[in-house]
Amino acid sequence: MTDDRPKPPLHRATLPNGLRIILAPDPRTPRVCVAVHYQVGFRSEPPGREGFAHLFEHLMFRGSASLPDGRFYDHVHRWGGAANGTTHQDYTDYYQAVPAAALERALFSEADRMRSPRFTARALAEQLSGVELEVRQATVERPYGGFPWPLLAQALYSTHPNAHDGFGDIRRLRSVTLDDCTDFFTTHYAPGNAVLTVAGDHDPAQALELITRHFGGIPPRPLPPYTDLTEPPRPNDYRATWTEPGIDVSAVAVGLRLPDPEQDLTGYLAHLVLADLLGQYGTGAPGLPAVSTSCGFFGPLDALSPDTLVVTAALPADRSQQLLEAVRNRWAQWARSRTDDRFIDAVGRSVRVLTAEHHRRHDDLQTRCRSLGRFEALFGRAELVDRLPGLLTAVTPEQVSIAARSLRAAPATVLTIAPGAERTRPSAGASPGPTIRAAHDRRPGRPTAAGPFPVPAAGAHRDPLPSEQHDATLPNGLRTVAVRHDRTPLVELRLRLPVGLPGWAHPARVDHLARLVDLRGQAALNARALVGQLRFSTDGQWLDASGYTPSAGLDGWLDALAETVTAAVPALLPRANDHGSADADRLLDDALCAHVLLGPGTVRPGTDDESGSVARLGRSLLAPTGATLVAVGDLDPRRFASAAERALALWTGPRTDRRPPGASVVATGERLPVDLLLRAPAAGADDVAHLKLSVPEDPSGMDEAARFLATAVLGGYHRSRLASRTARTELDGYAVFAGRDTFLDRPRAYVRATVPKQLAGPALAAIRAELRGMAERPPSAAEVDPAREFCAGQLLSAFDSAAVRADQLCRTVAAGKSPSLLERLPARLRDVPVQDVAAAGATLFAHAEPACVVLGDVEPGAVTGWHDRPPAG
Questions:
Q1: Domain 238-419 = CATH 3.40.50.2000
Q2: DSSP class per residue in 713-777
Q3: Where are the domains of the chain?
């Protein structure tokens, strides 16, 4: 799938101190992403300092001269943005996604820690504890811990840089000093060893001026010495086996060397296609399960050479040795198939899949920004982000056959983690030293301490640009909303159907139906050889379809959807597994549904998945009336409505939402008449309780922006009343938040909490006090104004990609709101009067007694007077 449309230009610059700059302007999103890639990863670590690069990444968030004591996040939290960092084999990246108004603050914060980070004994001790927990969770507490990385790397490679892991030994890391931190920073975090990338809504000339202002004064330092990654080839296959108690099957990984993408990018991409083919079609060996494949431990083109092709599978212990033979047999078959029509078709489909996935990933603002910086830092080729689809499309079946022949003959490493009485792993002994070649004769100088500098003010607000969209209701009752978003040649599609009374009363049947149509939907796409996705799921209130397709395949995708929703549900179905209500939030709502619909004391048969009942439910639920279909992408919005009407013309029939016997649906504004205690361990954790308090919302008489902000002030962001209250009590660190959604076809406000089970009673009392406080202590401007900034900024993230926008738009439209609300709401949040927010808060949360459901092994005395029952299902 080629994309011949002109791409937004990339702008390059280099400051006198050596900092390389990539600017990728795009006014179609109202946010910016700022990323800094330092050319240091865990392959840069000397012996005895394994894990230091990862630890140092954590430290870089703990303060700088102008932003001490965690103030780095001030602007991120203020405007609803996001910030993080990651450590990889050959680079460490730091990135922020914020509204365009916060661009200068984002640049300032990155410059400040590039210039003068602050390392303290307290911060180092805290981050050592955090890293220890992270490493333990990833490698010790998780079954098959360390599989396939870093165990496969240790088996495949022999030199220290390539074989050691990026976690290290926490006992060694505890010997790190503040001087060690300063030396590491001085050596590796020089501006000439970094790439700064800005993507999103910015003017390149103005952005370069800001970058020069904040980064230009950072003194240059010599580039660090580089580590020689040369790895001698293994002459023969190598096998390593380790054991793990408590597992039933072996995890097997096969590792092989990939071509160097700097020297042979075409060959690397041919291996990428070959890996995808193996993942799609498997080994073909009888009795062997599907395999998973990847180029690179952390994804394709994420490391310098040597890089690794990884094949993994879960196998019975007695068959674990057969994986390599089966893989080689498949490669031998493909090595002979370059003129075979079926192989040619399979390669073509794989190329189309990989190209579509690349377009979809890089439509996201953060992913695009980080990939631009990564490709520049590793290969000096940021433009690969836009050129890769064309390069992939040029890969030929003959090149893939050559790759298969090469891998068939190459030595491989096989790692197996097998069932055993005890856990065994490689010893963490002394590592051989790396080969280091000095780039300069003199030792890098210490950075010049500078600052603090004044923190810059925010820029002008930028709201989303109006988009071309079309809203239509088809003759069969289906509402369609289409929005043009032409950053990539793809279309994101979402279908939402209300479950209705029959579904609310029998959630297990809805789960069974969702699994059935999910299988049918993807099969319909595959039968048409279409690239894309069509998946179904349910949350108990809606049956949702989510998918995407290249623009050229939109008509075929709609045909596949039509086939999926119009086909009769078979009268006899294979028995389903336990339905999805094991999720705590779903259990809470399912219990409330059962009580409201079927009356007090009624326990719904949550495992009822009798086939005839599911078939009847399918006839009722799979109807266009009341359903919403949303499309966002490279399309003509008006033509989409016509295409949907053509494809779905045979999808007819009204919904049959007849109430089950004894059902009673709560009226708008009426209290949900229930307090329930579900006495069962919650979601696998017997030491916590899950709470949900629900209030029906009157949809009339209140401005949407006022409702939005009132919910945020109560519990919708980090400075809310609920967050502040829990931070002052023993509930600190536990999740308590407020939201709004649709429940039993009615808008609802709710508060959700996860707390220690012994504190369920005090938590409920605290939450109820805050609900009453929305009327007794109306929100003031001092509370509302910070909520405005946060909520308006966070809403802009809906425009980071077509996928996120489609998700948000589908929820908005299915709730009965205008499709243009997403574009208008950020500005409206900044203008709505404080008194309207106060009135909305009182109406939403304080004028009705909420219905409460508690799930957990809680003593009844903590919630006296409640209905005590087992959870449905």
A1: no
A2: HHHTSTTSHHHHHHHTSTTTTS-EEEEEEEETTEEEEEEEEEEEGGGHHHHHHHHHHHHHHHHHS
A3: 11-146+153-228, 238-419, 489-573+609-647, 675-869
Confidence (pLDDT) at 868: 46
Please state, for a pLDDT cut of 90, what percent of the chain lies above it.
70
Residue 815 neighbours by CB under 8 Å, 6+ apart: 741, 742, 747
Residue 677 pLDDT class (50, 70, 90 cuts): confident
> 291-304: string of b/e by CB count within 10 Å (b at 16+)?
bebbbbbeebbbbb
CATH of 675-869 among 1.10.3210.10, 3.30.830.10, 3.90.1150.10, 3.40.50.720: 3.30.830.10
Q: Which position has the token pair 């809504």?
A: 201
Nearest to 495 by CA among 580, 561, 586: 561
- Indicate the length of the chain as a whole number: 873
H-run or E-run covering 137: helix 121-139
Within 31-102, residue ranges assigned H as helices are 52-59, 74-78
**Comparison of pLDDT for 147 and 598, the residue scoring more:** 147
To which CATH superfamily is domain 11-146+153-228 assigned? Answer: Metalloenzyme, LuxS/M16 peptidase-like (3.30.830.10)
Instruction: State yes or no: pLDDT of 480 exceeds 90.
Output: yes
pLDDT in tens, 799-833: 999 999 999 999 999 999 999 999 999 999 999 99
Q: Which residues contact 824 (CB under 8 A, 6 or more apart)?
A: none
Find the DSSP H helices in 528-553. Answer: none
Mean pLDDT of the region 728-747: 90
Helix axes 397-409, 265-281, angle to 10 degrees: 80
Contacts of 36 (CB under 8 A, 6+ apart): 93, 94, 95, 110, 114, 194, 195, 196, 197, 373
Kindly state the tokens that stand for 522.
């993807």
Task: Give me the DSSP letters along 833-848.
Answer: -HHHHHHHHIIIIISS
Hey, what amino acid is at 36?
A: V
- Type and span of the H or E element at 498: strand 490-498
Chain center to CA of 710 = 28
Which backbone phi and psi does 242 adopt, to 5 degrees? -130, 160
Cα–Cα distance, 809 to 819 (Å, whole number): 6
d(CA 183, CA 537): 52
ω into residue 25 within 30 of 0, thus cis?
A: no
Residues 6+ apart with CB under 8 A from 265: 391
Mean pLDDT of 571-589: 67
> How many whole angstroms separate alpha carbon 387 and alpha carbon 763?
54
Q: Would you say 217 and 15 are in contact if contact means Cβ atoms under 8 Å apart?
A: no
783 φ, ψ (degrees, to nearest 5): -90, -40
Instruction: State which H helix or E strand residue 36 sits in.
Output: strand 31-38
Phi, psi of 581 (to 5 degrees): -70, 5
Local structure of residue 574 (DSSP, 8 states): P
DSSP single-letter state for residue 443 = P
Q: Say if 11-146+153-228 and 238-419 have the same CATH topology.
A: yes
| CATH of the domain spanning 489-573+609-647 | 3.30.830.10
Looking at the DSSP assignment, which residues form a beta bridge with residue 309?
256, 295
How confident is the model over 344-391, as pLDDT tens digits? 999 999 999 999 999 999 999 999 999 999 999 999 999 999 999 999
> Is pLDDT at 212 greater than 60 in this prediction?
yes
Q: How far apart are CA 143 and CA 164, in angstroms?
A: 21
Please state, in angstroms and rounded to a whole number, the distance separating the CA atoms of residues 796 and 199.
15
What is the Rg, in whole angstroms, of the alpha carbon atoms belonging to the chain? 29
